């Protein structure tokens, strides 16, 4: 079908022209799949090339019943971009979402953990835990320490390679969104925990496509995003911590604690790999008392 060819072209555009990660491309594609599923389920004889404004309105109304306003806004934005692409490539002449407004949402502040929370989670890890003769407790500690001390995204963590470790220089090389690379400082303690895991890793029969991957499962394969989420979920439950914690929570906590301790926002931006300083500025909310302390300490007319 013509529109399916358009979807394939759009995915190539996202990868080559916009430099998006495979995960981001899959998210955009999933939005389009939601729309086509809706059309098929309701026996609507239209596709993304022929769909009109009224049908899009009905779809948005339908989808709003099952997703929150933030997810709804993201879906509308993704579909709007897709239809803009179809116009640019002459698949259609109008964007059916031009007159549709996204729901108004407040800016979501990131969840963070305190230093005490971090210590609790790390101290809860059973360092003697083994599976199939492989000590995965030490691996899990290295994972948590790396997420927190380097501020990595979960996708960056599972793609981290042994050849990306420059411990003599005190840095690791991280491949972020759009395959953009950056160097992030890494502390001595985190290096120590990673080296402990590397010694254990040497005991695993590593799969050919994971020879250079740092964090593996007991089968010698690269960890999945879902597995990292599961490790953290079980750890939080075991610790008794009553907070909603995900891999990204450690990244937020990394940035928050740096800012609270006086780090420069531009430096935090570079370590997080944010393309725009505006993205990093969300952390300015974190501790109003800290901002007051800065004012009292440095303003000439305090």
TrEMBL record:
Start and end residues of each Tyr recombinase domain: 108-296
Positions annotated as active site in the UniProt record: 153, 177, 248, 251, 274, 283
Family according to the record: Belongs to the 'phage' integrase family. XerD subfamily.
Name of the protein: Tyrosine recombinase XerC
PANTHER family: PHAGE INTEGRASE-RELATED, TYROSINE RECOMBINASE XERC
Entry-linked PROSITE patterns: CB, TYR_RECOMBINASE
Stored InterPro entries: CB, DNA_brk_join_enz, Integrase-like_cat_sf, Integrase_catalytic, Integrase_recombinase_N, Integrase_SAM-like_N, Recomb_XerD, Tyrosine_recombinase_XerC/XerD
Organism this protein belongs to: Winogradskyella vincentii
NCBIfam families: PRK00283.1, recomb_XerA_Arch, recomb_XerD
Quaternary structure note: Forms a cyclic heterotetrameric complex composed of two molecules of XerC and two molecules of XerD.
Alphabetized CDD domains for the sequence: INT_XerDC_C (cd00798)
Domain Core-binding (CB) as annotated: residue spans: 1-87
Alphabetized UniProt keyword annotations: Cell cycle, Cell division, Chromosome partition, Cytoplasm, DNA integration, DNA recombination, DNA-binding
Localization annotation: Cytoplasm
